Amino acid sequence: MSGEAAAAPAAASALTAFSADISKLDLSPLWERKARLVPGSDCLPAIWRYADLRPLLAQSAELITKKQAERRVLVMENPALRGTSFITNSLYAGLQIILPGEVAPSHRHTPAALRFVVEGSGAYLAVAGERIAIEPGDFVITPPWAWHDHGNLGQGPVVWLDGLDTPFAQLLGAHFRENHPDDKHPVVDAQNSLLVFRFEDTCAQLRAMAPSAADPVHGHRLRYASPATGSHAFLTMSACMQLLPAGFRGLAYRSTEGQVFNLASGACRVETGGRVHELQPHDTLVVPAWEPYRLEADEDSFLFSFSDRAAQEALGYWREEHL
Ligand SMILES: [Fe+2]
């Protein structure tokens, strides 16, 4: 028997005793760390079908009063993150319904917010002093700490998708929020606000790209650009619209950005997590970080998405892999 082998049990018990000792001082031994040091997260791919959610939104409109309307949101929580309000570790997503005549009070917060309009006409978003009339498919930027409010002056309900980077603010201990002292912040009607991207303009740009070869993974894809930086829509979040042309059969792919997809129009398939999800208009699907996925469409489909790519690029973390 070698001296080394005989010494091992004694060393193991000494290490155990040592770990117990240092634990009293809120210390832990790195050599015992069990945390994953590989890409990906514990989040799961998941789908929320608009056919299921739309009646629930209508029901919530009956249950939640006009006064509480700004919080009348169905929050899509990742099945692996129940209780957190988050759809991935770094993103929040919810569907909000606003009834005719409802007007929300102005407020601001450090988390940045995006709105992607799902259905309904006649509503407006007021952001940083600009009042923006919105229609289905429009994408609107609310920068961090910008005053914002909204209202529905139309005849029917309006639904939009809220996307926020709230988990970043929470992670960094920098989540601030305040209500405007006057309920409303001063606004002017903005015909050409740089904070809104009209669906018809986005679709026209994508259709103009269609004669050229589609990207083998993403089809034709446009990234919404921040008017302030010309780069990603936010410092943390990136948002895109892609056109999957009829007959598109995308290649398998993954990247470190967690992505939330919402189908604007058409019908497409997303294969991920060992399943094939058939997306109908306004369905929401989350593909977590580093999860392989593949896109297909039998008809021209406009697919909206947002992700945490901007933050990942800024930090030097972002990676992709063609599979
Ligand atoms: Fe807000």
What does this entry look like structurally?
The protein has 323 residues and is α+β, with helices and mostly antiparallel strands. It has three domains: 3-32; 48-196, Jelly Rolls (Sandwich), CATH 2.60.120.10; 200-322, Jelly Rolls. 18% of the residues lie in helices and 33% in strands. It contains five helices and 23 strands. The chain has helices spanning 3-23, 50-63, 166-171, 199-209, 309-315, and strands spanning 46-48, 73-75, 92-98, 107-109, 113-119, 123-127, 130-134, 139-142, 148-152, 158-164, 177-179, 188-189, 196-197, 220-223, 238-244, 253-255, 259-265, 268-272, 275-279, 284-287, 293-297, 301-307, 320-322. The protein has a six-stranded antiparallel beta sheet with strand order 1-20-17-22-15-14. Strands 2-3-10-5-8-13 form a six-stranded antiparallel beta sheet. The longest helix is centred in the N-terminal third of the chain and has 21 residues, at 3-23. The N and C termini lie far apart (50 Å). It binds fe (ii) ion. Fe (ii) ion (FE2) binds next to strand 4.
Residues in helix, %: 10-25%
* Estimated structural class: alpha+beta
Please state how the strands of the largest beta sheet are arranged side by side.
1-20-17-22-15-14
CATH class group of the largest domain: Mainly Beta
Radius of gyration: 23 Å
Instruction: Give the DSSP E fraction (strand runs of 2 or more residues).
Output: 25-35%
Largest sheet: 6 strands, antiparallel
N-to-C SSE string, H for helix and E for strand = HEHEEEEEEEEEHEEEHEEEEEEEEEHE
State the low-pLDDT regions, or none: none
User: Mean of the pLDDT scores?
Assistant: 94
Q: How many domain regions? A: 3
What compounds are bound to the protein?
fe (ii) ion
Q: What is the number of helical segments per DSSP (H or I, 4+ residues)?
A: 5
CATH superfamily of the largest domain: Jelly Rolls
CATH topology of the largest domain: Jelly Rolls
Q: Please give the alpha-carbon distance between the first and last residues.
A: 50 Å
> Based on DSSP secondary structure assignment, what is the total number of beta strands?
23
Spatial shape: globular
CATH arch. level architecture of the largest domain:
Sandwich
